[in-house]
Design brief:
By secondary structure, the protein is an alpha+beta fold. It has 11 helices and 19 strands. The N and C termini lie close together (7 Å). One of its GO terms (cellular component) is microtubule.
Length: 344
């Protein structure tokens, strides 16, 4: 039984935040701690003098603005890849408010690629090393969940897709494009292209806010080349999920359509949160019902959360005092996820 690993990444302060005079409210202390300072409390307030303005949270890893993409990848994801090659499932989530760097962590830029590309690079290297004994195929699909509908990012013209369950209870997406490739560069191009198809809209918090959850699913199938064991197959799945920003409408100044969209985003994140809460309490005495059917997102990730998967969540926050409330909620949410146990 393994616990969900939770890492935290604190992005650098933005110029706009510095100009507004935002102070630093989140600080990394050592490798595993983060302290969050409440900016709203007046130090001269006698009634609250004894109440600590600082809250400390403990995670498996904490990164601040000095951490490179490589460091984040090596500490969170690299060790999962060998597991996928041996037929285990693995899941990596990026979670946090709008504008805290989730897409940067997962997709990255051409010069600073994120987890997607680094993970696939290592996957192909690992598979290449055992290619003499094993035949392998790698297929991937890239989809988004937007307003509770599923769109194929590699073939956006295919319209909305259905989630179906097969006879073994595995969740399938009917009609999704699966691309087979052995080249990480090709994949990067596909992902960049797919990402341009993602639903992005400017909000007050972020100019290119991802308004949908993007899920990259990589399936590795291996067969032994030796005749006598040729019946055996290893299938490992790797899910990499860039969640839409969790946010309060006040912060993003959303109105009308954006507001509705935000409600949908928050609905699926709430469903995810409910599942996380139920799963984290499952270790206790009462048998908790976990409702995965509340949203498409939780149905798709059923295995990665409560089932047969090694799971890592990378929570993201902004260090600015103006984002204190968002950061606090994110830290509480992520801290809960640490109690979830999965069976691999």
């Amino acid at each position: 039984v393994l616990c969900v690993q939770v890492a935290l990444r604190i992005r650098p302060l933005r110029e706009a935040e510095v100009e507004e005079g935002a102070a630093l409210s989140a600080r990394r202390v050592g490798d595993q701690r983060v302290t969050l300072m409440d900016p709203s409390e007046d130090p001269d307030d006698i009634l609250r003098a004894n109440r600590s303005r600082e809250k400390t949270f403990l995670f498996d890893m904490v990164f601040d603005h000095t951490a490179t993409q490589e460091e984040v990848y090596v500490s969170t994801t690299k060790s999962l890849i060998e597991g996928v090659i041996s037929g285990y499932n693995a899941t990596i989530f990026a979670y946090g408010p709008t504008g805290t760097g989730k897409t940067y962590t997962m997709l990255g830029t051409d010069s600073e690629p994120g987890i997607y590309v680094r993970a696939l690079d290592d996957l192909f290297k690992g598979l290449g090393a055992s290619a003499e004994e094993m035949d392998y195929t790698v297929s991937m699909s890239y989809l988004e969940i937007y307003n509770e509908v599923i769109r194929d990012l590699l073939n956006p013209s295919s319209g909305f897709l259905d989630l179906r369950e097969d006879s073994r209870g595995r969740i399938q997406i009917a009609g999704i494009t699966e691309v087979s490739t052995t080249n990480a560069q090709e994949i990067m191009e596909l992902l960049m292209k797919g990402n341009k198809q993602r639903t992005q809209e400017p909000t007050a918090a972020n100019r290119v806010s991802s308004r949908s959850h993007a899920v990259l699913q990589v399936t590795v199938t291996q067969k032994s080349r030796r005749k006598e064991t040729s019946e055996e197959m290893w299938i490992g799945k790797l899910f990499m999920v860039d969640l839409a920003g969790s946010e309060r409408a006040a912060q993003t100044q959303n109105r009308g359509k954006r507001m509705k969209e935000g409600a949908h985003i928050n609905r699926s994140l709430l469903a995810l949160g409910n599942c996380i809460n139920a799963l984290s309490e499952k270790g206790g005495s009462r048998t908790q019902f976990v409702n995965f059917r509340d949203s498409k997102l939780t149905r798709l990730l059923k295995d990665s959360l409560g089932g047969n998967s090694r799971t890592v969540m990378i929570a993201h926050i902004s260090p600015a005092s103006s984002s204190f409330e968002e950061s606090r909620m994110t830290l509480i949410y992520a801290y809960r996820a640490k109690n979830i146990k999965t069976q691999v």
